[in-house]
Design a protein that fits this description.
mainly beta, 25 strands, Jelly Rolls, eight-stranded antiparallel sheet
């Protein structure tokens, strides 16, 4: 069941915001672990009319065809599967909304993560289809909670095909805190809330136009920062980014929210296709993750030449590296390694696991070596995996047999 509430956004600048209660809340005292679903196996974590949501979400194989309709025959953004969405039936007029599916990103949170967090999803824009379908829209909303775990505010990409009479097929896109036809217009260059800090002096945000078909990443990034007008030391800052499949930027907007001092801000709420008027809209690679990552391990795997090897590592991506380290002892192989410098750490995730790859230099029995360490946290669905490669020829990889290994 959904309810709508009227709110205000940005001091002295009134704006209508939507308050939506999506199903029964799932609250967490701390931010949930990273959430990812690329739809290779299921649509877990997403909700449609079959499980307390709206519209439909259906897995489709790469190359799926739908009789020449929207994005027929396209390859998935990654892997062999993606998902297709439809919204509830509507007349595409103000007040008639095609509510679509939503995700809770693995669980709602009342805690703003250290360093912030991001949410994103890949969406396919079919400009050829747009050429014959003027003014079809969808709103992609990533909302945030307050510090008690209740809804605080929506942050929305407003997307629509060209208006009737415009002979140039395209998608118009802008960013706001509103959704639905009765309060948003994707081609509007001054949507609420205005932000003179990012866009002086008027605070307007020029809309983007996309005229090339393809997969695009729609990303929200939530951080805390200081700026003029913030009533506390820090307030919420939300960045909206649209990226091509090669990672280059198509559009970027920022909203500084003086109405959201960080003492009142929690963690993620839902990601929701609040209005979804395009039948069979493809999405892929839905992700929620903190901007700071942690990896810790202290355990054993089978050694290279028998016996056991013991490893220990720690990596926190936001503390300047002061406590980062990696070590290993494998007596049967006469390997005794200790890192001296970590040059890079890469965190990745898929549908069921998180991985960290750490690269650096160190000493093996007192002699200089380079190293690459890989740790895979399978979230208890399978044993964790640890691997270490040294430039002196030592290589070991195996399942965790005792101890602990976590990647977040």
């Amino acid at each position: 069941m959904k309810g709508l509430n009227m709110k205000t956004m940005i001091r002295l600048l009134p704006v209508i915001a939507i308050l939506v209660a999506l199903g029964s809340p799932v609250l967490a005292a701390a931010p949930p672990a990273p959430y990812f679903n690329g739809f290779e196996k299921n649509t877990d974590g997403w909700f449609d009319s079959s499980n307390s949501g709206d519209g439909t979400i259906t897995r489709r194989p790469s190359g799926y065809t739908n009789g020449g309709q929207y994005a027929s025959g396209i390859a998935s953004a990654a892997g062999k599967w993606h998902a297709r969405l439809t919204g509830d039936p509507c007349t595409r007029t103000p007040g008639s909304n095609c509510y679509g599916p939503f995700t809770r990103w693995g669980g709602y949170s009342s805690t703003f993560p250290t360093g912030g967090y991001l949410t994103q999803v890949d969406i396919y824009l079919d400009v050829n289809w747009a050429a014959t379908h003027s003014d079809y829209r969808f709103d992609w909303d990533s909302s945030i909670n307050d510090n008690t775990g209740n809804f605080r505010r929506d942050w929305v990409f407003n997307v629509g095909t060209q208006l009737p009479g415009d002979l140039s097929p395209k998608f118009n896109i802008n960013a706001s805190t509103n959704a639905f036809r009765d309060s948003t217009f994707p081609e509007n260059d001054c949507p609420n809330p205005l932000d003179p800090i990012s866009n002086p002096p008027t605070g307007c945000r020029i809309h983007a136009e996309i005229s090339t078909s393809g997969w695009y990443t729609f990303r929200h990034t939530f951080t805390a920062g200081s700026f003029l007008g913030c009533p506390e030391t820090t307030c919420l800052i939300v960045d909206f980014d649209i990226l091509r499949s090669n990672g280059t930027s198509v559009a970027h907007w920022t909203i500084h929210s003086s109405d959201d001092p960080m003492s009142m801000v929690g963690g993620n709420r839902y990601g929701w296709f609040a209005n979804e008027e395009i039948l069979d809209l493809p999405i892929d690679n839905s992700l929620r993750t903190g901007l700071c990552h942690d990896a810790d391990g202290d355990g054993e795997t089978d050694g290279k030449n028998g016996g056991k090897e013991h490893f220990k590592f720690h990596k926190h991506s936001c503390d300047g590296g002061k406590d980062d380290n990696a070590s290993e002892d494998d007596d049967e192989s006469n390997t005794h390694f200790q890192s001296t410098s970590i040059t890079s750490a890469t965190f990745t995730q898929d549908d069921t696991s998180q991985t960290v790859t750490i690269i650096g230099t160190g000493l093996d029995n007192g002699l200089p070596v380079g190293f690459t360490m890989i740790a895979v946290d399978n979230n208890g669905l399978a044993p964790a995996v640890y691997g270490l490669t040294l430039t002196d020829g030592y290589v070991v990889v195996g399942n965790l047999t005792s101890g602990s290994l976590t990647v977040q």
